[in-house]
Write a structure and sequence with these properties.
- The protein is of the alpha+beta class.
- It folds into two domains: 124 residues, Ribosomal Protein L22, Chain A (Alpha-Beta Complex); 101 residues, Ribosomal Protein L22, Chain A (Alpha-Beta Complex).
- It has five helices and 14 strands.
- The strands form five sheets. It has a five-stranded mixed β-sheet with strand order 3-14-4-8-7. A three-stranded antiparallel β-sheet has the order 9-13-12, covered by helices on one side.
């Protein structure tokens, strides 16, 4: 880990605080990916100069507006632009991308949300995928879902577990698989079964096998930005290191 934040060998991120307002951010250096964690409820809605309140946002639309505001703010800090001047488009499969007609800079990003929080992954070299899930979510039929959507190897390993270990392992694996699919740029349908991830949450996250290329050509890491949340980061490049940041509001006067 470096002084700017990072991720240990088990994939558990230690997030360093960066406060608003943000100045110009250096792009991730070669071989690195930046991960940002934002508590949107605490940050509030800067457009209306009000906090979201302890209960969260008034509507999904309000949360989406705030999430997009801060995503553009972060990307703008890397590009040297105000957030309002960052233009995003969507790929054919719906992945948000910098508009290449307006931005010549090579910058990849991925966003995921859960319970008023979000994570943003940023790379200057390769596409990146990120996911965020409640670690204590209990799917109604975890093993049935795994047998239907996961690889046969993953389903077999999960079948050897009893609740609640089964549900915990399923959620950790789900976060990793979502991240891999996002990094690959495809949709979930018919893709989750095409690769195998480590299902044991006690072990470091890993892509064990894939029908598309070589598993060793990927980085897959898991992290816990705060208790109760599990995140995963994936990118089609081996051995990537991570700088991890927690975005906070301006410091209060003493």
């Amino acid at each position: 880990m470096n002084d700017n934040g990072g991720m240990d060998t088990a994939g558990v991120a230690r997030f360093e605080t960066r406060r608003l307002p943000l100045g110009r951010l250096d792009p991730p250096p070669p071989g690195h990916v930046d991960v940002w964690f934002l508590d949107l409820v605490r940050l509030g809605n800067p457009l209306h100069h009000e906090a979201a309140g302890e209960a969260g946002f008034a509507s999904p639309r309000a949360e989406r507006t705030v999430r997009r505001f801060y995503t553009r703010l972060l990307l703008g800090a890397y590009l040297g632009l105000p957030g309002k001047d960052v233009h995003l488009v969507r790929s054919a499969r719906g992945k948000p991308l910098l508009d290449p007609a307006r931005h010549a800079d090579r910058l990849f990003h991925s966003v995921a949300r859960s319970a008023g929080r979000c994570v943003v992954g940023v790379s200057g070299e390769v596409p990146v995928g990120i996911d965020l899930e409640p670690a204590d979510r209990r799917p109604g039929n975890a093993l049935g879902l795994a047998r239907r959507y996961f690889s046969a190897a993953e389903a077999e390993r999960l079948a050897g577990l009893e609740p609640p270990a089964l549900e915990i392992a399923f959620m950790h694996a789900w976060a990793c698989k979502e991240a891999v699919v996002k990094a690959g740029g495809g949709g979930i349908a018919n893709n989750l079964c095409r690769f195998t991830v480590e299902t044991d949450p006690r072990r470091p996250a890993a892509l064990l096998a894939t029908e598309d290329g070589e598993a060793a050509d990927w980085t897959l890491l898991r992290f816990h930005p705060e208790p109760g949340l599990v995140g995963a980061l994936a990118a089609p490049a081996p051995g990537l290191a991570v700088r991890a940041w927690r975005l906070e509001g301006p410091a209060r006067p003493a």
